[in-house]
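pasting for the record
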Amino acid sequence: MTGPVLALPEVADAVAVARRSESDEEIWLLIVLGDPQHVDRDGLAARVRAAVRRRASPRHVPARVLVVPDLPRTRSGKTMELAITEVVNGGWPDDTASAANPGAFAQIAAVAGTVAGET
């Protein structure tokens, strides 16, 4: 699902995670912008959703599109998807020491917590 999103020129990185609720779950897409100061954020979520709908399927369209400064990665460069999912769902990963950029967890928690508080 991130393939169509990564094809957008303004998106440098992306990860899709499941945000659980009491009775269901929805897809949240976290994106890192290539040049945050020169991206037209008006309509960004709509452009992302349209790209997913067009190049993947309507079933994969994310419920939320969140812009985050960075995604946590292991020292070998792999995106820490399970740990990101835990943070998006209000938890905290047991092992942040294996992250090359552990500060990204707090950044994601702040953005996700703000959005979750709206729902």
